[in-house]
Write a structure and sequence with these properties.
The complex is a heterodimer of chains A (122) and B (268). Chain A has 122 residues and is α+β, with helices and mostly antiparallel strands. Chain A is built from five helices and four strands, in the order αααβαβαββ. In chain A, 30% of the residues are buried. The N terminus of chain B is likely disordered. A two-stranded parallel ribbon of chain B has the order 1-2. Chain B is built from eleven helices and two strands, in the order αααααααβααααβ.
Chain lengths: 122, 268
């Protein structure tokens, strides 16, 4: 997806970031990639989950922008969850990320309503 | 490296067949990345597919994995770090265009078809050679592909005006200008490939490899534009040949775009 001149985030990145904001507001402090994609799909009432390469490309860019941070879970924690030797990478929304989400909505003249990006009519 | 050894080393893992398919696709599309980056991507990818399989079932996860192939391809092709993958794909597409043209019944002379076959074989070998080492260019390995491509492209370039054979009454798009430009572009590509072949056999020079690449790129740019123009114009006469020309033209132009990036790779 091409970046429009003057905008920092493309649509997928903004959707994911806003979903992360929603998840944090709902009490979740960390999430892994599929969590985010599934939450976004359910909010949009669709069965179509963001594809894995697209998702992780967007997450990488959001991390580069400082909107998210990530860390790998420990091997002990993975083993305790039944994922011996297969730790997950968890993402955390940063304060800068929440601010970025708000500023991008303003800049792109969009609103986030029930998990969807809609043109700002106000 | 055999497939079984590859999968056991990288680990397509156990689990339901659908999940294994998704994991295998991840391994295919992360092939050639630096080790640490690949480990990280595979770990994230495995976690994603496991979570999806647990959520909606491994069969549907497989379907999503297959549906993600274009996205995977785009991720690799658009990656900011330079690899040979886009060039390999470009070579393969041009080869497909050449084979498509050969398969057009009674269109090209037997000689030209043979030369197209030789050029396409060179391109396929070049594509395979590029895929073998995605992060570096091993100059000597391009000897045979470059030689075949040089013979094929130069031969076709010299035969362009008489390349087509017609059944009596078959309509034919005639354009001496496009014929000459096509011939010239193929000759330029042939010269570039010949330079690459000589470099691969004798000099093994990075500078000469870059010069050869630049010459090929110039020829490809001219060929791409010429073939697209010719294909669009010929569409009303022979749709099959027009389609082959446009495919080859687009592939040639895409290869022109990716070739210069190869100079950033490590040469060996």
């Amino acid at each position: 997806m091409r970046r429009k001149a003057g905008h920092g985030l493309v649509r997928n990145e903004l959707r994911l970031l806003l979903t992360a904001v929603d998840m944090r507001n709902a009490g979740g402090d960390r999430f892994h990639g599929y969590d985010l994609a599934r939450h976004l799909a359910r909010a949009e009432d669709t069965k179509k989950v963001m594809s894995q390469p697209t998702l992780y490309r967007a997450l990488r860019r959001l991390e580069e922008r400082g909107a998210l941070t990530s860390e790998w879970e420990s091997l002990d924690s993975a083993a305790a969850a039944g994922r011996e030797g297969r730790p997950r990478r968890y993402y955390f929304l940063t304060t800068a990320g929440a601010d970025l989400a708000a500023s991008e909505l303003r800049a792109q003249e969009l609103s986030w309503a029930s998990g969807r990006l809609v043109p700002n009519t106000s | 490296m055999s497939v079984s050894r590859w999968t056991s080393e990288v680990g397509a893992g156990g689990g339901p067949r659908g999940l294994r398919t998704a994991r295998l696709l991840s391994r295919v599309f992360t092939w050639g990345l630096p080790d640490e980056e690949r480990r990280n991507q595979l770990a994230e990818s495995d976690a994603y597919w496991e979570s999806m399989a647990a959520d909606i079932g491994s069969f549907r996860a497989t379907f999503h994995a297959i549906r993600a192939i274009p996205s995977w391809l785009w991720s690799r092709l658009a990656a900011r770090d330079t690899t040979t993958l886009p060039a390999a794909l470009g070579c393969a597409f041009v080869a497909v265009g050449g084979v498509t043209a050969i398969l057009q019944p009674a269109t090209y002379t037997t000689r030209v078809k043979m030369l197209m076959g030789i050029a396409s074989a060179g391109l396929v070998l070049a594509s395979i050679t590029l895929l073998r080492t995605p992060r570096r260019l091993v100059i000597r390995r391009f000897r045979i592909p470059a030689t075949l491509a040089a013979i094929g492209f130069t031969g076709i370039g010299l035969n362009v005006p008489n390349a087509v054979t017609l059944v009596d009454g078959t309509p034919m798009l005639e354009s001496p200008l496009l014929d000459n430009l096509t011939g010239l572009s193929l000759l330029i590509i042939g010269v570039g490939c010949a330079a690459g072949a000589i470099n691969g056999f004798i000099f093994l020079s990075r500078k000469l490899a870059i010069i050869a690449g630049a010459i090929i790129g110039l020829g490809l740019a001219l060929l791409g534009v010429t073939q697209i123009v010719w294909g669009v114009w010929d569409a009303q006469i022979d749709i099959g040949l027009a389609a082959a020309s446009i495919v080859a033209g687009l592939a040639a132009l895409s290869l022109t775009h990716v070739l210069p990036r190869l100079r950033h790779l490590e040469f060996e």
